[in-house]
Write a structure and sequence with these properties.
The protein has one domain: Arc Repressor Mutant, subunit A, CATH 1.10.10. The chain contains 4 helices and 3 strands, in the order H-H-E-H-H-E-E. The protein has helices at about 5-20, 25-40, 45-55, 65-75; strands at about 45, 80-85, 95-105. The protein has a 3-stranded antiparallel β-sheet with strand order 1-3-2. It is globular, with a radius of gyration of 14 Å.
C-alpha cells in the first residue's frame, strides 16, 4: 500500500467516525477542547475527556474512533499540533498510547 493510499484510508475512516458520531457529543467535545486550548499548555485527549465528563456528563458516543477523529480535525485545521506521546491515564484506554498536543500559535 502506498503512503497516499494509507492517508486516503485514514481520512475516510476519520470522516466515517465523525459522520456517525452523536451531534451533541461532537459539540460538547469541541467546547471542552476550546476550554483546554485556552489554558495554553500541553495536553492530551484525556484532559479534554475529563472536562467533557465534568461539564457534559450526559455526552456519550458509541464510536471509539470519534475522539481521534475530532483531535485530528483540530490538528488539520491548525488549532493544535502534536508534540509527543504518552500512555493514557483513562482506564477505558487500557494504558494505550495517545498524543500530547499543544495549542497552535495561529
Amino acid at each position: 500500500m502506498s503512503l497516499e493510499e494509507g492517508e486516503r484510508l485514514r481520512d475516510l475512516g476519520m470522516n466515517r467516525a465523525l459522520m456517525g458520531a452523536d451531534a451533541f457529543y461532537k459539540e460538547a467535545f469541541s467546547i471542552c477542547l476550546d476550554m483546554t486550548i485556552k489554558k495554553r499548555h500541553k495536553f492530551s485527549s484525556d484532559a479534554v475527556q475529563a472536562r467533557l465528563e465534568r461539564y457534559f456528563p450526559g455526552a456519550k458516543t458509541k464510536s471509539r474512533n470519534v475522539v481521534g477523529a475530532l483531535m485530528g480535525a483540530a490538528s488539520r485545521s491548525g488549532r493544535i499540533r502534536a508534540v509527543g506521546i504518552k500512555q493514557s491515564n483513562r482506564t477505558k484506554r487500557h494504558a494505550g498510547v495517545i498524543q500530547i498536543w499543544e495549542p497552535s500559535d495561529g
